[in-house]
Amino acid sequence: MNPEQLARMRSEALRMNRNAGNKLRRLRQKGVSPSAIDPRVPAERIRRMNSVQLAGYMDRMDTFLDRRTQFVGSRLGQPISKQTWEEYKRVEHAVNLRKERLFNKYGDRTLPTGENVRTRREKFGGVFGGFVYDQTGSKILDRKPYNFTDERAVRRTIESERKKLTRGFQLNELRKWRNQAYELIAQSGNPELANRVRSLSPEKFEAMWRLTNFVHDASIRYEIEKSKVERRPYSTRAEEQTQSNVDNIVSWAENL
Q1: Which regions of the chain are under pLDDT 70?
Q2: In terms of Cα–Cα distance, which of 232, 177, 226, 218 is closest to 200?
Q3: Rounded Cα gap, residues 78 and 40, in angstroms
Q4: What is the DSSP string of 86-128?
Q5: Interior CA angle at 134 toward 222 and 228, to 5°?
Q6: Can you list the positions of beta strands (E) in the chain?
Q7: How many Cα neighbours within 13 Å face the side chain of 128?
Q8: Between helices 117-124 and 202-211, what is the axis angle to 10°?
Q9: pLDDT score at 130
Q10: CA-CA distance, 189 to 245, in Å (whole number)?
């Protein structure tokens, strides 16, 4: 390569360096810290590069300057590539679709409280961002980049959420919830009702667990029974109400 061609390559590499600086400034304005993704080298170093080094550097700059190379900022301003973020949202969508299956099937069923499943979810809110505690596994997620610290956190969550789509994970979750439900009712002094819960089909049990107040009422009923044993004060009215609520919810599930 003659000196004139080499000079043109260096001039083009310097131009790309400036364009990269402009892109990094725009990213900073959007809350993305550019330090981890800055592909530039000092101008003096570019002026010392040979043709092979320049070609490799310009290839890297082409990739960075490509419109498809985009980033969103995490809570700490760390860059998350657009490809990683879109992959996460696809997995999140698939997980949410599975959660919606029961809701779509039973959304118009009237609960023992008199409201239907759809109204109950609208009342308590059905979409959650961040990493909220989800005891029943029913919350629909809509996480944002600021819910994550960096791209590695997004990657870990992708793998975690993807596992939730496997049949093995779903069976283990259902088994865990069944055991919890049985223990809550059995230790509340109602083995007959506990056996009815155990006898529910997988789908009926899952609908009861995810779509009703079962977990809330059964937990209160359990705590009341615990208070009796420990001779702590408790509300007899709450005892009667929660027992009735749990009985009615189980009957509701049996009749789905």
Answers
A1: 124-138
A2: 177
A3: 18
A4: HHHHHHHHHHHHHHHHHHHHHTTPBPTTSSBHHHHHHHH-SEE
A5: 10
A6: 71-73, 79-81, 127-128, 140-141
A7: 13
A8: 40
A9: 54
A10: 15
